[in-house]
Amino acid sequence: MQKKMLRQPTTPGQILKEEFLDPLGISQTAFAQHTGWTQPKVSDIVNGRLGISSESAMVLADAFGTSPQFWLNLQNEVDLWRASRTHKKVRPLVKV
Fold first, then answer.
1. Class assignment of domain 12-81?
2. pLDDT exceeds 60 at position 85
3. DSSP structure string for 43-65
């Protein structure tokens, strides 16, 4: 059984800002222009208001030389953590 995580995992937007944009000295506006995204979209991702889709994961992977799965895994961790806050357990199905 997996231990319940008390704090939310680091969001993909936080990783985008703190591990990629900031160290490279790239502003959100410059990154938006580079990717063809709007600045509000980048801001929404960075601030956790917008999650990472498969398409955005592919763009991020292209831009930073990572894999799309890297970004989707980060998003999946956040999504599962959020779902665990309200999930009601269901009894296991038993064979009749």
1. mainly alpha
2. yes
3. HHHHTTSS---HHHHHHHHHHHT
